[in-house]
Amino acid sequence: MSILVDKNTRLLVQGITGNEGLFHTTQMVEYGTNVVGGVTPGKGGEWVLDGKIPVFDSMKLAVEATGANATIIFVPARFAADAMYEAADSGLPLIICITEGVAVQDMMSVRTYLDQKKTRLIGPNCPGLLTPGESKVGIIPGNIAMPGNVGIVSRSGTLTYEVLYAMKNVNMGASTCVGIGGDPVNGTNFIDILEMFEHDPKTEKVMLIGEIGGNEEEKAAEFIANKMTKPVAAFIAGRTAPAGKRMGHAGAIIEGGAGTAEDKIKALENAGVRVAKHPEELPSLLK
Amino acid sequence: MKLHEYQSKNIFSKFGIPIPKGRVATTAGEARQIAEELNGRVVIKSQVLVGGRGKAGGVKVAKDPQEAEQLATQILGMEIKGLPVRKVLVDEAAAIDQEIYFAITNDRAAKKPVMIASAAGGIDIEEVAAKTPEKIIKIHIDPLLGLREYQSRDIAASMDLPREYWRDFSKIAANLWKVYQATDATLAEINPLVITKDKRMIALDGKMIIDDNALYRQAELAEMRDIDEEVPAETEARKYGLSFIKLDGDIGCMVNGAGLAMTSMDVIKLFGGEPANFLDVGGGAGAEKVAAAMRIILSDPNVKAVLYNIFGGITRCDEVARGILTAMGEVKPKVPMVVRLVGTNAEEGRKLLENANMITAETLADAARKAVEAAKKGM
């Protein structure tokens, strides 16, 4: 057991013939992930990884031929929104978008569209998912994590690796590690994942890795206080980040004073979450 | 990317939103000339990319061309929140009856665009929002449906705008929505949108921020970037695709990933140091990019030590090590450097740096501690 991805995940890769797509497909297959096919428009009929993985022209064709149940997107930012629409229209329940730099107006449209479907989007601008020992759907280096009972949810990429590595150094393993991405508009938020961890029998403890900006950490704190029985530890990046020179008033009107590390840490501590001073301290808070 | 007021208003005007007559000037003489052309009272407005210009004395009314020249001289010599004023906008002065706040921006919590309006517009709008939130009207816009006319009418009615202005307001709202969409704005703000004594609606001030992620399809707007308003090192960093922010401390940082870069700064501070910058070399950074990053960090004379924290994923540690070696050959740094490499090809990376006379560290905490020590000692 774990959340979102496991041994039964049958994965497609959108942008499989690109540099990044191909490199990470290789890494995922080596890890044991069941990659059943890929999509690159105009390259249908080709095969990659020494003839092991078929390439299709469209998601529709790929899903029909492979019976896939998840897709991961590596296409460049300007094509990412289209790739997400295509994935949703092909009926897949799970999309993971690694691509960084998707325009925010594109993401607001994508998110609005996906909310009307039964498709879950993780990302964009995220490192993806890792269920150690079972399935890697993303770019988290597989060798820095071991199987275990700690669920991890994070807005960051390399900072998450840092935490996984610190855990492994003290023999602490992860049930599933979820990178939800750092963009202002994304597909899945902290609360969605916390709820899944709360119901996942394999997860006994949870780590939340947040950063400055927005108010998702504050909402997560409220959820933890009211709905969670499992212990949670957290780290928030950006205590020393300087306040941006604000232009216009809309940001202040919409978000108020929210978004600072201090506010987030306070909200989490008030919810009973133990907050680490630095990421390598996190594992000791859940011992 | 932030746009100046005059740039924002030019865009508004192109999309059919009425703005005052006026032009931008870089000298007091030009300001005088524009005032002569406008033939009446004018407003001299500093053009800097920061809020609070009026309160800082950067916006003044002149009754004639001579006073316009005097005030322009004064304002062009000012600094507002650390930014020197290089341009002023000279606009015809309006006789104002009412000031309205009106903006379209992204609501990241709702994941939708939101239209915000208030009949109590002007420079104190944030105070209005904090003290009397009921005076702020917000309506979310479905991005797939676009702004519907009934929504503009609802806003007009909610802020008790007299009915005779509903049509003008709806037109301005529809056009601001077009501006927001066409320019990939994250903010399109009119404050104030005024009703003049002669019953016209005019966008007296304008502010826009464009989504950096969309600049690839906004070539014309990308050209409008005012690099005079940036720290030169930040402009240089952008050329190499590096995310860099200059800070006041003395420990330079090079890290891959924004979250980890912020965290490295936090840990430096935790151990009693002060970071000199935020620098994210990004994923998959090659030697050339790393060398550029190092040159930028070392160009800051305050830097007394440098911390390299690289967690290899897409980024390969041996590539980073090669970049460090290249840059060291060019720049010949005189400050101590602490390096921590973990993850993809870390072993190879460490070997490459063996003879580079750098301080090595195993953990992030260890690296930060050593960097703080090194900066205090000097070398």
Topology:
The complex is a heterodimer of chains A (287) and B (379).
Chain A: E1 11-14, H1 19-31, E2 35-39, E3 47-48, E4 53-56, H2 59-66, E5 70-73, H3 77-89, E6 94-97, H4 104-115, E7 120-122, E8 128-131, E9 135-138, E10 147-154, H5 158-169, E11 174-179, H6 190-199, E12 205-211, H7 216-227, E13 232-237, H8 250-255, H9 261-270, E14 274-275, H10 282-285
Parallel strand pairs in A: 1-2, 1-5, 2-4, 5-6, 6-7, 10-11, 10-12, 12-13, 13-14
Antiparallel strand pairs in A: 3-4, 8-9, 8-11
Helix pairs in contact in A: 3-4, 6-7, 7-9
Chain B: E1 2-3, H1 5-14, E2 22-25, H2 28-38, E3 42-46, E4 59-62, H3 65-76, E5 79-80, E6 83-84, E7 88-92, E8 96-107, E9 112-118, H4 125-131, E10 137-140, H5 149-158, H6 166-182, E11 185-196, E12 201-203, E13 206-210, H7 219-222, H8 232-239, E14 243-246, E15 251-255, H9 258-270, E16 277-280, H10 287-298, E17 305-312, H11 317-331, E18 337-343, H12 346-352, E19 359-360, H13 364-377
Parallel strand pairs in B: 15-17, 17-18, 18-19
Antiparallel strand pairs in B: 1-13, 2-7, 3-4, 3-7, 5-6, 8-9, 8-11, 9-10, 11-12, 11-13, 14-16
The oligomeric status of these chains comes to: heterodimer
Query: Unreliable runs of chain A, pLDDT <50, ≥5 residues?
Result: none
- CATH homologous superfamily descriptor of the largest domain in chain B: Succinyl-CoA synthetase domains
- CATH topological fold name of the largest domain in chain B: Rossmann fold
Tell the overall outline of chain A.
Answer: globular
Number of helices of chain B: 13
> What is the CATH superfamily classification of the largest domain in chain A?
Succinyl-CoA synthetase domains
CATH architecture annotation of the largest domain in chain B = 3-Layer(aba) Sandwich
Measure the end-to-end span of chain B. 39 Å
CATH class term of the largest domain in chain B = Alpha Beta
